[in-house]
Design a protein that fits this description.
Blueprint lengths: L7 E4 L4 H6 L4 E6 L3 H11 L4 E4 L5 H9 L10 E4 L6 H9 L7 E6 L6 H4 L3 E6 L6 H12 L5 H10 L4 H11 L9 H7 L7 H9 L3 H9 L5 H19 L12 H12 L2 H19 L5 H11 L1
Parallel strand pairs: 1-6, 2-5, 2-6, 3-4, 4-5
Helix pairs in contact: 6-8, 10-11, 10-13, 11-15, 12-13, 12-14
């Protein structure tokens, strides 16, 4: 069996390079980090390829369409979508044969291709997804796909309001793409896209500095998403434990911004005060787990009492 070199890696920022990297003959497997980047790629190449789905391919199809090329050549090139759904018999067949040089087929998937032996038979391209600090760039890639041009203040609102996930960004931009550019303004976008994101570290900084009014206000502007709140209060309890005992930093040569915030908070807050908030935030987490209708009333009372 002919073994091919290690996969080529292409950043999500350079999707245009994928098409340039596809060999003109043989089989290539392209792995995407999510279905949204895969959709963008498909949109770029689908006019040049005949689409087929992994679940529809059988051994006869491989024989007839890839191996037994007729007088006028292949009906391809082919773009196989949902390639992870190739059945075991088809996978074994593909391992046994060599794809002729005058045939071209792309196997595309946004799931990890687990059959490593089969992967070695193909040219292999891996599209690398964004690191957490690259989500603004990822947002730009999706905005370009939808041809949505946004002002800085609108983009800033969306980035800070949405959970930093492909799903949230894609749906928000798809929603906005139905409006003409001159119709999009910040007030309209705020009406269409409600805040769904809690910045754990920004809120922790507010608590560290005893800016409780803004802390609670930031919690109240979120729609009633109990899972989001529950995750936050779980994180915050761990944060408070570090404030009570910041000794974990003693072995660090250099303190991160987060560590510096812990150090500041350990001086501003007494241990008794932190202990009281540990109880309070534990109660909030439990209320969120129970999806209590009284939870937001508790937040409002705290906000008004400051």
């Amino acid at each position: 069996m002919r073994l091919l070199p290690m996969p080529s890696k292409i950043s999500f920022k350079n999707l245009d390079k994928i098409k340039q990297s596809i060999p003109k003959s043989g089989a290539v497997l392209i792995e995407f980090p999510d279905c949204f980047l895969e959709r963008i790629f498909i949109d770029k190449v689908e006019k040049d390829y005949k689409k087929v789905f992994g679940v529809d391919i059988d051994r006869d199809w491989i024989e007839n369409e890839l191996l037994s090329i007729g007088l006028f050549g292949s009906d391809g090139p082919y773009l196989c979508l949902l390639s992870e759904q190739l059945n075991p018999k088809v996978r074994e067949k593909l391992k046994e044969v060599e794809i002729p040089d005058d045939v071209n087929i792309i196997f595309s998937t946004h799931q990890k291709f687990s059959d490593k032996e089969l992967v070695k038979k193909f040219e292999h391209i891996v599209v690398e997804g964004p690191k957490f600090w690259e989500m603004s760039d990822y947002f730009d890639v999706l905005a370009k796909f939808f041809n949505v041009k946004l002002s800085f203040d609108i983009k800033d609102h969306l980035i800070t309001s949405l959970e930093p996930t492909a799903y949230e960004y894609y749906n928000a931009l798809m929603n906005l793409s139905s409006y003409r550019p001159e119709e999009l303004n910040l007030n309209l976008v705020k009406t269409l896209i409600k805040q769904k994101h809690l910045d754990n570290f920004q809120l922790a900084d507010l608590f560290n500095s005893k800016n409780l009014k803004r802390f609670y206000l930031s919690l109240l502007i979120i729609e009633n998403d109990f899972d989001l709140y529950r995750g936050f209060f779980s994180f915050l309890q761990g944060h408070l434990v570090k404030i009570i005992d910041p000794s974990y930093m003693s072995g660090k040569a250099k303190l991160s911004k987060y560590d510096q915030g812990i150090s500041l908070a350990s001086k501003k807050w007494s241990k008794d005060e932190i202990a009281d908030y540990l109880v309070k935030f534990g109660k909030y987490e439990l209320m969120c787990k129970q999806k209590s209708e009284w939870f937001r009333d508790e937040l409002r009372k705290e906000f008004l009492a400051i």
